[in-house]
Design brief:
232 residues, alpha+beta, Ribonuclease Rh, Chain A, four-stranded antiparallel sheet, two-stranded antiparallel sheet, 7 helices, 26% helix, 17% strand
């Protein structure tokens, strides 16, 4: 039953049923120990109805700009163990309004086995811990289930050939269209972009409904279709 569920999740985003493999990488023999985060005054616990989901994917060349010597980003950014492209930032539950649920249940550290299973998809031990605490506890009972859903959805995404766009200028609308074209049945209005103040592509967010199927994004991403963006 569990295997059938994961296959169904992947099929929601890719009618081809041909999942893209996670980037090849080699996890260190000794992983750093994650730290519990939990809610804070600035990031409080919020128990709210879920109105949909966001699948957030980071573009590594931009993420690693200025982070090459940061120990937290060593696996993703040192350039020795693997050259990542897009990685999974996280699967986030959205609220029915402008606010979203977060830190829904107290929890423990993500088990080492689960971290290793997900490190080539989300190459940061602390980010894996953060995603489970802040988002996963609002939609799954265990980190195993939460990350299995996340991996299935991310694994179904097909990415455009980024070498065609790196170092060039293009519009936000053109990139959304190119990303959608790489995925059968995807529409540009189901995609939101996150860019830096300097106009560099940072992340791609895919809007999902309550059943984890693609849906039109409910709010504009604030980036006009004709706005120029740059891609590292």
């Amino acid at each position: 039953m569990r295997a059938e569920l994961l296959l169904a999740l992947a099929a929601l985003l890719s009618s081809t049923a041909c999942a893209k493999k996670a980037p090849a990488c080699e996890a260190p023999a000794n992983l750093p120990r994650p730290m519990l985060e939990g809610p804070t005054v600035k990031e409080p616990r919020r128990l709210l109805p879920i109105g949909g989901y966001t699948l957030a994917m980071s573009w590594t060349p931009q993420h690693c700009a200025g982070r090459m010597t940061n120990p937290r980003d060593q696996l993703q950014c040192d350039g020795k163990t693997s050259k990542f492209g897009f990685t999974l930032h996280g699967l986030w539950p959205d609220g029915e309004g402008a606010t979203w649920p977060q830190y829904c249940s107290p929890t423990r550290l993500v088990p080492d086995k689960v971290i290793r299973e997900n490190l080539c998809t989300t190459p940061s031990v602390q980010l894996i811990q953060h995603e489970w605490e802040k988002h996963g506890t609002c939609m799954s009972r265990t980190p195993e289930d939460y990350f299995a859903k996340s991996r299935a959805l991310f694994g179904a995404i097909r990415f455009p050939e980024m070498a065609d766009y790196r170092g060039k200028r293009m519009t936000a609308g053109a990139f959304r269209a190119a990303f959608a074209k790489a995925n059968e049945g995807m529409r540009a209005d189901q995609i939101k972009l996150r860019i830096t103040p300097g106009g560099w592509l940072e992340e791609v967010w895919l809007c999902l409904d309550k059943k984890l199927g693609r849906t039109a994004c409910r709010a504009a991403d604030g980036i006009a279709a004709d706005r120029p963006i740059r891609i590292r």
